[in-house]
Amino acid sequence: MTNALPPDALYDILRGAAALSGDPIVADLARLVGKGAPADLSIAFNHKQIASKRWLVDALAQVLPRPEGAVFVLGAWHGVLGAMLLADGRLAIPEIVSVDVDPACAAVAETLNHRHVAAGRFRTLTADMRGLDLSGAREPRPGLVINTSCEHLEDVPGWLAGLPPGLPLVLQSNDYVREPDHRSCVPSLAAFAAQAGLSETWFSGALPTKNYTRFMLIGQR
User: Fold this and answer.
1) In sequence order, what DSSP letters do the residues of the chain get, joined into one string?
2) Ranges of each domain in the chain
3) Quick one: pLDDT band at residue 126, thresholds 50, 70, 90?
4) pLDDT reported for residue 22
5) Is 40-220 CATH 3.40.50.150?
6) Which residue has the higher pLDDT, 198 or 37?
7) How far, in Å, CA of 93 to CA of 95, rounded?
8) N or C end of the chain, less CB within 10 A?
9) The whole model's pTM is what?
């Protein structure tokens, strides 16, 4: 077996892949790797993570392609979903607000989304989603709130109860109970729908993977 690729070689491969595919996200990823990416970026860009985000983008393009206001991505980590949403021509999103409780995520997300930062369409916010005021009291009310990490919350219904009625939402959870940090896993799509208690549901679906099934709901509080 040959030795692992050095970082400079990975950077060159990604730049080549960007030139080959013409995909601006790949070019942005190459730029991020060239500047020094965190080790867990490999998890943020693994095939399962990207597949679940692509599923979300495709579903959103069908049911809510033009949110009436900024899109808040909660638990946004390194800003990968925001990059995918802003890159999709089927969507008209005025701004992504990338929210994560870890302050180290902001610089990575801003580097990955540097083009959108410059255009005023992407910004980061270091905050705990459980204490975030999304009512519009401090800034304009979001046009859409995305939470793909419902399984990490201890009290999903309690968190949802604190959101303003009628707020459009995209929610994801899963049945992967073996992960210690998963506190609110659900066994089925029906159980997730019951847990969320949306007043209207525009999309519901399940995405099976090797070790777990991911569930998604799009609708309003």
Assistant:
1) -PPPPPHHHHHHHHHHHHHHH--HHHHHHHHHHHH---TTHHHHTSHHHHHHHHHHHHHHHHH-SS-SSPEEEET-TTTHHHHHHHH-TT---S-EEEEES-THHHHHHHHHTHHHHHTT-EEEEE--GGG---SSSSSPPPSEEEES-GGG-S-HHHHHHTSPTT-EEEEEEE--TTSTT--S--SSHHHHHHHH--SEEEEEEEEE-SS-EEEEEEEE-
2) 1-37, 40-220
3) very high
4) 77
5) yes
6) 198
7) 6
8) N
9) 0.91
Rounded Cα distance, 7 and 194, in Å: 46
Q: What angle do CA 195, 197, 199 make, to 5 degrees?
A: 165
